[in-house]
Amino acid sequence: MSTCPPMTTPTTTSKVFVYGSLRSTDVLHAILQRTPICAKGSLASPAYKRVCVRDAPYPAVIRSSATTTSGGIVDGLLLRDITPNELELFDAFEDEYERIQVDVQIATTSTTETAFMYLWNQPTSELVDTPWDFEAFTSDTNLLTNYVNNSRLFREDYELQ
Question: Which residues lie closer than 8 Å to 9 by C-beta, 6 or more apart?
Fold first, then answer.
C-alpha cells in the first residue's frame, strides 16, 4: 500500500525525502504510527545513487563520486509533515546514515522542494553496486512482514528510552 493522504496545512514540521523501505506506508505506519502527508518525487541532482546494502533488505543513497559509476534517478516520497519528535525518531532509525538537505523534484508539478534525506555514512565496502528494487521489497510478503514487525519493535524500544 502506498497511498498518501491529501495535503493539509502542517505546522512547525519538516520535510523528509525517503527512498527505500520507508516508502512503504506499512513501514512508515509501524514507525510513526500514522501515514504522513507525502508526494512522489526524485532527487533533483544526478550527484546521488541508490545502491543495496550488503545482507540488508534496505538500500543506501551515496554520493555518485563515492563509486566508479555515475548516479541515476533516485525516486521516492517526500514526507511533508514530519514533527520534530518524528525527525528525532527517524534519526535514531537511520543510525547508519547522516541527515543532509537535498532538493527534491515533485513528480506531479515538476517543482523543487528542499528536504532532509539520510545519506549513507558507513564504509562503502558494506554496499553492493546494484540497484535496489522497491517493488521486490514490497512484493516479498515474508520480508515485508518481518521488516514491519521489526520496525514496530524499534518504535517500542525507542519509546522506552
Answer: none
